[in-house]
# Entry
Amino acid sequence: MKTAGWSTRRVAGQVDRSECVVRNCWVQWTREGTHARKPGSGATKKTTRREDRRIVRQALVDPTVTRSTIRADVGVAIVPQTISKHLAEANLKSKRPFRVLPLTPEHR
# Structure
């Protein structure tokens, strides 16, 4: 569309994207000849797939195990949020023991 002489605003309206996105794509196309996204430079993984499986396995074996215990057993310097993320990916929710048993109407 740009090579046909369309304005950036008209192209953006046609493809339902912002003008900034269309402009950036056009600049990349004219500079590099490609529209492909570049791979991100995000944070590197601190754990291997084997360590990820070990984290999940420990939580399955003992549902009341703490994140700090799992971190010590895995032996990798990771933050507790990483452990929570791996458990959430495995559809495991935190299981804390009851402080007191919930009362039923019969108990009351």
